Every structure is written in C-alpha cells, then in structure tokens.
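=== RUN LOG ===
request id: a7f3
mode: sequence -> structure
chains: 1
length: 130
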Amino acid sequence: MLKNKKAEELVTEQVIFIILNILFFVCVIFFIYRVSSGTSVTEEFYAKKIALIIDSMQYGTEVRFDVSELYSKASSNEYNGELITFDLNKKIVKVKLSKNSGYEFYYFSPLKSFEKDEANKLLILKADDQ
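=== RESULT ===
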C-alpha cells in the first residue's frame, strides 16, 4: 500500500510538470508570433523616430513625415482606429497598429501642434515658437 501511494504522487508531479511546460511553450510561441509579425517592432520604431524628430526640431519649424508604412501595416491588421496620437501635456507619442497593441514614447521638446494628412499619408509636426 505504501509504495502505491508514492507512485501516485510521482505521477501527479509529472503531470503538473508537463502541464506547466506546455503553458510555458504556448506563451513563448505566442510571443514569437507577435514579434515576428512586425507590428510591435514597427510601432516602437515609429514612436521613437517621431519623438526624435520632435526633439531635434528648431523653434518655429514644421516637419512633414511620411507614415505610409503605418497605414499599410494597420490595413493588413484590419485596424481602422487612430494610428498616431499625441498627449501634448504629458509629451507622449503613441503609435498603434492593431487593436491589441500600441507603443508609447516620451519626447522632451515642446510641440505646438500636429496634423495628419491622411490623403498623402503624412504627419505634419509644428514646433513651439519659444
């Protein structure tokens, strides 16, 4: 009787170990799929690029930035929401290309205003006048 109880404990431990391994590998595969789709990398790249452009702008200047790649990625993800949003008070730019993702990045320089020219797929940034 005693040996039988010990064998049951070993089987239970092995089953729990196998279930935890399966959950771990499912999470790893999901992460790899998300990163390999390129959406998160593109969001991060453009959020940082826009923040760097804002920080390098001179006072009173205007910059037109081509964001056509964002529109094509968003359409391939079937996302119709706002692609680029700004919080002018907190100085945050957010790029979002799908329903379940998005990347925020902070910038330092004051930004006066921004416009989105969706027809030409441009982002127009205007620096503060000082």
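=== NOTES ===
The mean pLDDT is 87.
The two ends are 85 Å apart (CA to CA).
=== END ===
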